[in-house]
Design goal:
Alpha-Beta Plaits; two-stranded antiparallel ribbon; 4 helices
């Protein structure tokens, strides 16, 4: 995995729960530096401390801009475990966009999963409430507001208990385990540019 460094490097990382999406923290909390020892790469976008899954890191500033700039509308796919079973009406609200801090979110693609996804156990289990069922939703966003998925599901009455990002544009999490990373191929980087230029 730690092959010789090239001048420009881009990696896919499966960020574990409880890890900050940066390399230093004055409070001493776990960071990317605990998993990645590569000079010059930085996270292209965020994934909060309590969220998990795919994070792209690159030393290529132009690529980072393509990934993070909302004008490119690069789709980001999430799996969200929420409290209670959302109704079709609630799902439709999220699809159309919800009002967050005076701004309506862009339309999202949302569906309820018939079965729980196969994911590694989280080190800190979600809070379990015997009389409150949970459900998994698949949500695709094309913008990146702060804690957007959590705020959207909460706004329609279904707080998110666990959130895992499984794809950014054409790049999928695949079989990377939490804490693992891999280099992106030149072909995959080309696919990212193609994906944003089509929209």
């Amino acid at each position: 995995m730690n092959r010789a460094l090239s001048r420009v490097q881009t990696i896919a990382f499966n960020k574990p729960y409880g890890v900050l999406p940066c390399f230093t923290d004055p409070e001493g909390r776990p960071t990317l530096a605990d998993y990645i020892d590569l000079p010059g790469v930085y996270a292209a976008g965020r994934l909060d401390l309590d969220s998990e899954g795919l994070l792209l890191l690159t030393s290529d500033g132009a690529l980072a801009h393509h990934i993070t700039d909302p004008q490119h509308k690069l789709p980001k796919l999430y799996l969200a475990q929420v409290e209670r079973i959302p109704s079709e009406e609630a799902l439709e609200q999220v699809r159309k966009g919800v009002l967050l801090n005076g701004k309506t979110t862009r339309p999202a693609e949302v569906r309820l999963l018939a079965e729980d996804p196969q994911l590694p156990d989280r080190p800190v289990p979600i809070r379990f409430r015997k009389n409150v069922p949970t459900a998994w939703m698949e949500i695709t966003l094309r913008e990146g507001l702060n804690r957007q998925v959590r705020r959207m599901t909460a706004s329609v009455g279904h707080p998110t208990l666990r959130l895992v990002r499984v794809a950014i544009g054409p790049i999928a999490l695949g079989d990377l385990l939490p804490g693992q990373w891999r280099d992106l191929t030149s072909g995959e980087i080309g696919q990212i540019y193609s994906a944003v230029s089509r929209r």
